[in-house]
Amino acid sequence: MTLSVFDDVKASVSAADVASYYGIHVGRNHMAKCVFHDDKTPSMKVDERYYCFGCGATGDAINLVAHLYGLRNIDAAKKIIDDFHLNIDMKD
Question: Which of 22, 63, 65, 86 has the most CB within a 10 Å radius?
Fold first, then answer.
């Protein structure tokens, strides 16, 4: 497994893509209610990466899926590859 698998996934989908796919409503202004704390109003900026101004959660598409589902980054990358039907080889 090479680091390029992570790069390939991140080049294929953004944090906004995965957030929307996994049920997080991202508004036209790229703001969403943070799923990592009790958020009453949108405090998480979601585009290529995500950042919550309320709790400080931050990362890329892989980190978001890992955090959402309690996965290791490699397993989150595999989940994204499967769910988005990406043509990315997971072999060395």
Answer: 65
